[in-house]
From TrEMBL:
Pfam families: Sacchrp_dh_NADP. This is Saccharopine dehydrogenase. PANTHER family: CARBOXYNORSPERMIDINE SYNTHASE. InterPro entries: NAD(P)-bd_dom_sf, Sacchrp_dh_NADP-bd. It comes from Rhodanobacter lindaniclasticus. Residues 5-105 form the Saccharopine dehydrogenase NADP binding domain.
Length: 370
């Protein structure tokens, strides 16, 4: 029997890519869900799979539990961000209708807090997974893969920079703007300290060259110090390819920090449209780096850099892939975990990279002079 999958936010940048990955796969009976039925119908027509269903569904509506129960899903994939201001109503509705749940959340508190549903999920025999995206799902898979080379892991610093021509949605822009200029709790020197969103800007080396990146508030900052015991520093940064957009965002962050601007996130649609005036500048090349520092089994300093290079506008495929990997594993009966948890340790780096086969994505590891 095909696994009945309800994909919420299917019309978005990431949701549409998840839909394309699950379409025509006999393991799935896919239903596209969202607030705008016309765009969902258009997506269904583009995919060309007549077996795909369409459902109008609003995660903010009081009718959400009834609408989800009507769809009778066995797996709900929640891709309708931003998650920073959401609660767990979708996951709770999954428990009510007997469905597993996977989301693409990148909100620090949202992902780290999913365990509050753990006891109920285990009692119901269900799996609730938060953060099935680049962070913390792929980032933790990278650290897990490289960890055996270290006797002592002391520092994790990672960064992401999308190509300027890469499609961007309002939810992603709102998530970034939501922490610009605001305090960010950081694990540095083996103790909690504070930085500020989009600040601590520096030049980061990627496989394709250098770009500016600034501090971001993401789940990894909360989760990694506990997952990787003994690590003394965890820092994540992100940046925009065009200097005018990166430093324009930094200027707005300073205005927030100084109390001259309030909630930047509510301006996300307008600022996203403004950024698209420069869509022909820059490139469609983006990437990710994960740098680990520590000691090898001989006690020598060890510095490893894992790099991912995404071309041809395929960058958005990366945050979309962890949910696809989990869906396939659930359909194959290869994911026995039950409970509620952040998306760490549920798949390997090799499994993630295998799901990215066919896209313009390359990865590599280099050992640097410590």
């Amino acid at each position: 029997m095909a696994l009945r999958v309800l994909l919420i936010g299917a019309g978005g940048v990431f949701g549409s890519r998840i839909a394309a990955a699950l379409a025509y796969d006999p393991r799935f009976a896919l239903t596209l869900a969202g607030r705008h039925p016309a765009s969902l119908q258009q997506l269904r027509e583009r995919l060309g799979d007549p077996s795909i269903g369409v459902a109008t569904l609003d995660v903010a509506s009081p009718a959400l539990p009834a609408a989800m129960a009507l769809a009778q899903p066995q797996l709900v994939i929640h891709a309708a961000g931003p998650f920073q201001r959401q609660d767990y109503r979708v996951a709770e509705a999954c428990l009510a209708c007997g469905s597993d749940y996977v989301d693409l959340a990148d909100g620090r508190d949202f992902v780290a807090g999913i365990g509050c549903l753990g006891a109920r999920a285990k009692t119901a025999g269900r799996l609730l997974v938060s953060g099935a995206s680049t962070l913390p799902a792929l980032s933790s898979a990278v650290v897990d893969a490289l960890l055996p080379r270290f006797a002592v892991l002391e520092s994790i610093e990672h960064a992401i920079s999308p190509g300027n021509r890469t499609p961007r949605g309002d939810a992603t822009v709102a998530a970034i703007l939501g922490y610009c200029g605001r305090p960010v709790r950081l694990w540095r020197d083996a103790r909690w300290q504070h930085g500020h969103g989009w600040m601590s800007t520096r030049r980061q080396r990627f496989a394709f060259g250098g770009r500016w990146v600034g501090l971001c508030d993401v789940p990894d900052l909360e989760l990694f110090p506990a997952r990787y015991r003994g690590v003394r520093q965890v820092v994540f940064r992100a940046g925009l390819e065009l200097r005018r957009l990166h430093f324009g965002t930094l200027a707005a962050a300073w205005l927030v920090r100084l109390g001259l601007l309030g909630d930047l996130a509510r301006h996300a649609p307008r600022l996203r449209r403004l950024s698209e005036r420069f869509i022909d500048a820059g490139s469609d090349v983006g990437g990710m780096v994960v740098e680990l520092r520590g000691r090898d089994p001989q006690g020598e300093a060890l510095h490893l850099r894992w790099s991912l290079d995404a071309g041809a506008g395929d960058g958005p495929q990366i945050p979309a892939t962890p949910a696809v990997v989990l869906a396939r594993k659930l359909a194959d009966g290869a994911l026995p975990a039950r409970g509620a948890m952040p998306c760490m340790g549920l798949f390997t780096l090799d499994e993630a990279l295998s799901a990215l086969t066919g896209f313009a994505i390359e990865t590599g590891v280099e050992e640097l002079t410590a």
